[in-house]
Task: inverse folding
């Protein structure tokens, strides 16, 4: 509390407090407001931490982010393990899109890290995935809404990025990590309405 309120720390064995200039970022999967009401979390601490709150949806509720996250972690672990892995097979990507990801981003990171370690070729296949994903798709994710094709997952992600940047195609291409010509080809192939930023390029 002293650190948060006064921005001071006192090192072990020291009699003089030291002023610090830091930014504190705290994360939790618990409902702190409810815990405060129930007396299970200090109210004064909550209000010192909750200056700016960002609610992050679970990975299961934003499956359109999976392709981008998968690519990021594949590049990370391929470099870390010095392996020539460049991507993931479509059937593996479909299996991962059908999974409920109860462990969210951390679980995805662990899955990709494990798969990169096990993979022998240039692409991660189902046989490289952990047993929980390899043997069967998650039962809780068998609705039509969750069993999306790779093309539909890609289409939704492109739409989400375009909406986030106000339809600016050049900016969307930069975020997606593709060339400007490529995003125009994607928009044409997926028949995404030109009204999404038709006046912007």
Result:
């Amino acid at each position: 509390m002293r650190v948060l309120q006064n921005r001071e720390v006192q090192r072990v064995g020291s009699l003089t407090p030291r002023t610090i200039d830091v930014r504190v970022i705290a994360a939790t999967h618990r409902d702190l407001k409810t815990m405060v009401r129930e007396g299970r979390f200090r109210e004064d601490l909550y209000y010192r931490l909750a200056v700016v709150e960002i609610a992050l949806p679970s990975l299961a509720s934003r499956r359109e982010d999976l392709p981008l996250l998968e690519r990021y972690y594949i590049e990370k672990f391929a470099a870390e393990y010095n392996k020539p892995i460049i991507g993931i097979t479509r059937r593996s990507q479909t299996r991962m899109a059908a999974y409920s990801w109860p462990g969210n981003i951390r679980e995805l990171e662990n899955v990709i890290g494990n798969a990169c370690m096990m993979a022998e070729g240039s692409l991660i296949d189902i046989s490289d995935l952990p047993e929980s994903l390899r043997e069967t798709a998650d039962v809780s994710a068998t609705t039509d809404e969750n069993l999306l094709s790779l093309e539909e997952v890609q289409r939704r992600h492109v739409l989400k990025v375009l909406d986030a940047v106000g339809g600016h195609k050049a900016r969307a291409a930069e975020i997606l990590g593709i060339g400007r010509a490529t995003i125009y080809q994607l928009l044409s192939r997926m028949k995404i309405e030109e009204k999404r930023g038709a006046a912007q390029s």
User: Anything to note?
Assistant: Confidence is low (pLDDT under 50) at residues 137-145, 193-201. DSSP finds ten helices and four strands in the chain. The domain at 150-189 is CATH 1.10.10.60 (Arc Repressor Mutant, subunit A). The two ends are 49 Å apart (CA to CA).
